[in-house]
Design a protein that fits this description.
This protein is an alpha+beta fold. The protein folds into 3 domains: 27-62 and 306-375, conserved putative lor/sdh protein from methanococcus maripaludis s2 fold, CATH 2.40.420.20; 63-74 and 223-301, Efflux pump adaptor protein, beta barrel domain (Elongation Factor Tu (Ef-tu), domain 3); 75-222, RNA polymerase II/Efflux pump adaptor protein, barrel-sandwich hybrid domain (OB fold (Dihydrolipoamide Acetyltransferase, E2P), Beta Barrel), CATH 2.40.50. Helix content is 29%, strand content 37%. The protein contains 6 helices and 22 strands. The chain has a 6-stranded antiparallel barrel. A 4-stranded antiparallel sheet has the order 5-12-10-7, with no helix packed on it. A hairpin with a 7-residue loop joins strand 14 (246-251) and strand 15. Helix 3 runs antiparallel to helix 4. The longest helix has 32 residues, at 111-142. The chain is elongated, with a radius of gyration of 42 Å. Residues 78-221 form the CzcB-like barrel-sandwich hybrid domain. Belongs to the membrane fusion protein (MFP) (TC 8.A.1) family. Keywords: Transport. It comes from Mucilaginibacter ximonensis. InterPro entries: BSH_CzcB-like, MFP_Cation_Efflux, RND_pump_MFP.
């Protein structure tokens, strides 16, 4: 009987000692190796429900959502100016108005146009006399009735005046005056400015009565037949796009109205925010599409294989995404990653790793709390 009592007492004593050891172990705090690495106790490991796994490769597909605005290529933006300057006599243009090619959009007046026509007509009249004199001197020189010097001077005068007539004629055409329509009875005091394209007025930079120099731009016109959609695409998404890929675009004001586009050009120059321009051509032109309008776009991404982890493996802290890598026994290192929400509870991640690297797939948030609360 005494022996049995001794055995029971010894067992109770060992049990009490074990409970004290377990309680002490439960109270042992986790160890913070550095701001990114934590070592858990056995109890913390159990309570956190840590599960680990490796990166898995899965085929993903989806829709890439982008935004941008309607743009016009430089060759479709026309600046209208007056080559010789002058005073604006009249115009009826307003921003947004439609103009037809060849339509008179402004009338310019200036005395220099009258003077230019006078000089041209005078040179034409003089040319006729010089030509006759040159032919006469040439005939006289043939019969030795006139010297070579006189004949050569007559030829020089004739050719010089012919050059002057040609030059003044081109200046008149440049100013918008047809040389064949003017004569000593008809001289035009103003010139008409014609629209070079069918399009819309983008800007009106002048008012009636103002003098404009040849370097000033009176109007800016837009040819909308080749407008395109310029989208901003971040560096990480550029590889998902290719020339000819279909794009569906829509405006914020009318999201139900869809516009079919195709990718025409993918830019290779990255801006400060690591984005490039992708230009898309509208399949069908719509007059409602005004340059400068902001639009949203969706691109169907083909299936591709990517490294993925369960969504629970990724935690966000101070605007960045992280995962926890197994660095040893109950030891975990927080590593920054680039992540992208994918499908079926898995996220695509970009992180340096080997085939044997283990990541925390469950309990990552608990590790983040332990690590950052202790760090603070």
């Amino acid at each position: 009987m005494k022996t049995n009592i001794f055995i029971i007492a010894a067992a109770l004593l060992l049990s009490a000692c074990g409970d004290k050891k377990q309680t002490a172990d439960d109270k042992t705090p986790s160890t913070i190796v550095n701001e990114n690495t934590v070592i858990l106790t056995a109890a913390q490991f159990r309570n956190a429900g840590i599960e680990t796994g490796r990166l898995v490769q899965r085929a993903i597909s989806g829709t890439l959502k982008l935004n941008g605005k309607i743009d016009v290529p430089p060759q479709n933006m026309i600046s209208v100016s007056v080559p010789l300057g002058g005073y604006l006599k009249s115009t009826n243009l307003l921003s947004g108005m439609h103009v037809r090619k060849g339509e008179t959009i402004a009338v310019i007046e200036d005395q220099q146009y009258i003077q230019l026509q006078q000089d041209y007509l005078t040179a034409v009249a003089k040319l006729s006399g010089l030509e006759k004199d040159y032919k006469r001197q040439k005939e006289l020189n043939t019969s030795q009735a006139a010297s070579d010097k006189v004949t050569q001077q007559a030829e020089t005068d004739y050719r010089a005046d012919r050059i002057l007539v040609t030059t003044l004629a081109e200046k008149l055409r440049l100013a918008g005056i047809d040389p064949t329509r003017i004569n000593e009875r008809h001289i035009e005091k103003s010139v008409n400015i014609h629209s070079p394209i069918d399009g819309f007025v983008s800007k009106v930079n002048i008012n009636i009565g103002k003098y404009v120099s040849p370097t000033e731009v009176l109007f800016e016109l837009v040819n909308p037949t080749d407008i395109h959609l310029a989208l901003k695409v971040f560096e990480k998404d550029l590889g998902k796009l290719q020339l000819g890929q279909k794009v569906v675009a829509y405006t914020n004001n009318n999201p139900n109205k869809k516009y079919d586009c195709k990718i025409l050009l993918i830019g290779h120059d990255l801006s400060a925010d690591r984005a490039a321009d992708v230009h898309c051509h509208f399949e069908t032109y719509d007059k409602a599409l005004v340059p400068g309008t902001y639009m949203n776009a969706e691109v169907e991404i083909k299936n591709s294989v990517a490294n993925m982890l369960p969504a629970d493996a990724i935690v966000d802290f101070e605007g960045k995404s992280y995962v926890f890598k197994v660095a040893g026994d109950k030891t975990y290192e927080m590593v920054e990653v680039k992540s992208e929400q994918a499908q079926n509870g898995y996220s695509r991640v970009e992180v340096a790793q080997s085939d044997s690297t283990l990541f925390v797939t469950k309990g990552a948030y608990s590790l983040l709390m332990m690590l950052k609360n202790k760090s603070e």
